[in-house]
Amino acid sequence: KAGVTQTPRYLIKTRGQQVTLSCSPISGHRSVSWYQQTPGQGLQFLFEYFSETQRNKGNFPGRFSGRQFSNSRSEMNVSTLELGDSALYLCASSSGQAEKLFFGSGTQLSVL
Amino acid sequence: DQQVKQNSPSLSVQEGRISILNCDYTNSMFDYFLWYKKYPAEGPTFLISISSIKDKNEDGRFTVFLNKSAKHLSLHIVPSQPGDSAVYFCAAKRNSGNTPLVFGKGTRLSVIA
Predict the structure, then answer these.
(1) Which tens digit of pLDDT belongs to each residue from B65-103?
(2) d(Cα A67, Cα B89) in Å, to the nearest integer?
(3) Which of A30, A38, B69, B72 could cysteine-pair with A87, CB 3.0–4.6 Å?
(4) Closest CA–CA distance from residue B105 to any residue of chain A (Å)
(5) Distance (Å, rounded) from C-alpha B107 to C-alpha A48?
(6) DSSP string covering A53-78, please?
């Protein structure tokens, strides 16, 4: 079974731009979660989608949004980028019932 | 408000010795706990988990201990190997209600040959 695939691996943007990150979950997994990792801050939860519906949301501003498609693939969008948005964005999938998350390798976003 | 805390940012251990990574949590509703390992440029990978109905779970060289009264868990790695050098994240969740995993900030383990 293929793992969780995230594209692109690296992105460089400038302040004020917007960005879209993509995630393809493990086949059969209906839940996709997004996390932000910054140095010294661990993994901070952004949101979770299950069957195209947002099921949980973390404490991030409205500039961060996401969606999930009928094939369970998910996208995350960040608008009006700020320097502090520079981070590793991780996508994880699960069957929705399982406790474990399976992570992709992440997208490293740098905002200049 | 950090619900899962890993107070040691880093830990160095000699090869062959025991590594002990600690984690504290504040939310008494958490009833399922996991450890993840992360290498640079890779996503975290699941290592071991424990339910609140147990106080110990073992998988090969890895053992997780849970002390519910102290809201504390620890990961023991015996014997430690150079390939264990990575960042270890503790995570917790409530198993009911489809709540998200909450992660600590991680502990960087260096195993010295």
Answers:
(1) 999 999 999 999 999 999 999 999 999 998 777 789 999
(2) 27
(3) A38
(4) 4
(5) 25
(6) EEEEE-S--TTEEEEE-TTS-EEEEE
Do the Cβ atoms of A103 and B34 come within 8 Å? no
All residue ranges of chain A with pLDDT < 50 are: none
Q: How many residues does chain B have?
A: 113
pLDDT recorded at residue A96 = 66
Return the residue of B nearest to A37 by Cα: B105
pLDDT at A97: 64
- Among A10, A32, A37, most B C-beta atoms within 10 A, so best to mutate, is A37
Our CA-based measurement puts residue A107 at a distance from the nearest CA of chain B, in whole angstroms, of: 9
Q: Regarding predicted confidence, which is higher, B40 or A76? A: A76
Chain B contact present for A21, CB below 8 A: no
